[in-house]
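Anyone opening a protein record will find just a pair of labelled lines. A complete record is shown below as an example.
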Amino acid sequence: MNAMTGAVPGASSGTRSVPGVLRTGLSRVGFEVRGYFRAADGVFFGFLFPVVLLGIFGAAFASLGEVGAKPDGSGGISMAAYYLPGMAAAGVLLTGVQNLAMDIAHEKGAGWLRRLGGTPLSPVSYFIGKAGMVLISGLLQMALLLLFAALVFRIQLPTDPELWLRFAWIFGLGIATMSLLGVALSALPRSAKSATAVILPILLVLQFISGVYLDFSMLPAWLQNIASFFPLKWVAQGMRSVFLPEHFAASEPSGGWDLGLMALNLGIWLVAGLVLSVLSFRWVKRS
């Protein structure tokens, strides 16, 4: 959590010109990143959580052997490799939605945003700082997760440049969408104390029904349909298309990765998140 008492980093007096707003926002990125990594609970439950879970799942289910082998016995992967895409998707969710929703809700409930609203700081500059923090922490988290997977569990990462290009646009679109939804979700808690109780259950349920912790094909059709309405399911499916062998696509509901449909759904949620963020954000909490 960021301490916003005293001078406001990046705030300046005078007219808020576009270059000035951008400059102020960029100057806040470092401030937000430092604040994020100084919060031990946020670092563990957001930044390190996917790595910890991959370690637990990979070790706990290692005795099950390989999964997803073809009829001829080839193409199987370890359980750790099977869980890697889900943990990557969880990282995007936690870094974007959970991180921003709880952070902004706490700042609002504690009165820090009210004080910021009395300064020349523009809301655009404020969110540029938040977006920069999410992007930097998300990239570091993903790098740590993949490094952990490769070194500890010897997971074979993709070697095809096309797959890494696919990963880049899925990650970028996913983190942007989740960040905007996190801003919108921050308006739900009525106080800083209720932020955790309001936000965490929503995200936990989404992870269980979206193919993060459970095999998505094992869920009943009605639950798959509900999950398909939300963006996490599409991010998880996109990560599976990057990190799982191609023949695993047959296990998807449609029998394929559906990359175009995935981009469409994430794009719709991106626009929805932007609209909801603009409509719901206030410097002060609603009574």
About this structure: The chain has ten helices and no strands. The chain has one domain: 18-280. Residues 1-7 have pLDDT under 50 and may be disordered.
